[in-house]
Design goal:
One of its GO terms (molecular function) is ATP hydrolysis activity. Keywords: Kinase, Transferase. This is Protein kinase/ LuxR family transcriptional regulator. The protein has about 350 residues and is of the alpha/beta class. The protein folds into 2 domains: about 25-125, Transferase(Phosphotransferase), domain 1 (Orthogonal Bundle), CATH 1.10.510.10; about 175-315, P-loop containing nucleotide triphosphate hydrolases (Rossmann fold), CATH 3.40.50. The protein is built from 12 helices and 10 strands. The chain has helices spanning about 30, 40-55, 70-75, 90-100, 110-125, 135-140, 160, 180-190, 205-215, 235-245, 255-265, 280-290, and strands spanning about 150, 155, 195, 225, 245-250, 270-275, 295-300, 310-315, 320, 330. The strands form 3 sheets. A 5-stranded parallel beta sheet has the order 4-6-7-3-8, sandwiched between helices. A 3-stranded antiparallel beta sheet has the order 1-2-5. Strands 9-10 form a two-stranded antiparallel sheet. The longest helix is centred in the first third of the chain and has 17 residues, at about 40-55.
């Protein structure tokens, strides 16, 4: 719980007008300035709570002897303290700083979007990835609204797809693949399906993540990552893709039909990671989606090409760099020290 005891039902009674309730250090600057609470303000409060959990104190904790007005001024005018100074990784610091931005529009649009960013951090840092506790459809029904759907299935609005998507944030710097990065971006500009191939462990996934991150602003509906490494049955592919792009089951219509209808109007980069276990199913679905979705592009990683017309294939080789002491290091080689 992160509402500090001030949550109330939307549309219910007001306890006061023009009064600030709750802890100022966890209250969004625009609310302190007199604006009504909003989803963006809730995201700020969540970010402030995480800041406190990581450091042991609030970002704008009231100082000894400080007047409340002075604390308000700090919250509304000063930048969030840099979490990196507390030993917090850069990617974690950036996500929380964005959630606590003074500009509501610069924050994740909803708590669900913020949650997806946090899930990306968990994935990038090797932690178990939590399931979202509350889903969008439950929120909509709780407000008496009908979920937006395509033929009875919920589809997230494109605005939520245009942020960081599900791309994991990088923990370390990216080195040694600049040539492949440039070549892959050039291929993606000319081909609607680019597949990075190579042996296991050579770095295909990380290269794909960097490519996607570098071009995501070119796509109005952003980037979506579909992780296929655990998939063993091609029949589960449509479910995996649908989950990644935000299409959920609400009717008797075939999910594949609704997915195709949804992606037909998207300007989106779909990243299909580790396709080799279900490459035949990927080939069939990719061919159909690319045929009916003119603004859709795909970036795939696989130990073998997907094998459809128009595919551009980039072989990702092992690479040699040098570590201190002059010894060579082989990227993608077994037992390589990293």
């Amino acid at each position: 719980m992160a509402d500090f005891g001030i949550a109330h039902i939307s549309g219910g009674f007001e306890t006061a007008t023009g009064a600030v309730t709750g802890s100022p250090a966890y209250t969004a600057p625009e609310v302190l300035g007199g604006d009504p609470p909003s989803p963006a303000a809730d995201v700020y409060g969540l970010g402030a709570t995480l800041f406190s959990a990581l450091t042991g104190h609030a970002a704008f904790e009231r100082r000894s002897g400080e007047q409340v007005v002075a604390q308000f001024l700090r919250i509304t005018t000063q930048a969030v303290p840099d979490l990196r100074e507390h030993g917090i990784p850069e990617d974690v610091s950036a996500v929380i700083a964005r959630a606590m931005s003074r500009e509501p529009g610069a924050r994740p649009a909803t708590a669900a979007d913020f949650g997806e960013e946090l899930r990306g951090l968990q994935r990038a840092h090797g932690f178990p990835v939590d399931e979202m506790a509350l889903r969008a459809e439950a929120d909509a029904r709780g407000n008496g609204e009908q979920p937006t759907s395509l033929g009875g299935r919920l589809s997230q609005p494109s605005s939520t797809l245009g942020a960081t998507g599900t791309l994991p944030l990088e923990l370390t710097s990216f080195v040694g693949r600049r040539h492949e990065l440039t070549e892959a971006k050039n291929l993606l500009a000319g081909s609607r399906l680019v597949t990075l191939t190579g042996i296991g462990g050579v770095g295909k996934t990380r290269l794909a993540m960097r490519i996607a991150a570098s071009v995501q602003r070119e796509y109005a509906d952003g980037v979506r990552l579909v992780e296929l490494g655990e998939l063993r049955e091609g029949s589960s592919l449509v479910d995996a893709v649908a989950a990644a792009v935000g299409v959920r089951d609400y009717s008797a219509r075939p999910l594949r039909e609704v997915l195709i209808e949804h992606l037909a109007v998207q300007e989106l980069l779909l990243v299909l990671d580790n396709c080799e276990q279900v490459v035949d199913a990927v080939a069939e679905l990719a061919a159909h989606l690319l045929r009916v979705s003119p603004r859709l592009r795909m970036l795939a990683t696989s130990r073998e090409p997907v094998g459809i017309g128009g595919e551009a294939v980039l072989r990702v080789p092992r690479w040699l760099s040098r570590i201190p002491g002059g010894r060579p290091r082989c990227g993608g080689c077994p037992n390589t020290m990293r």
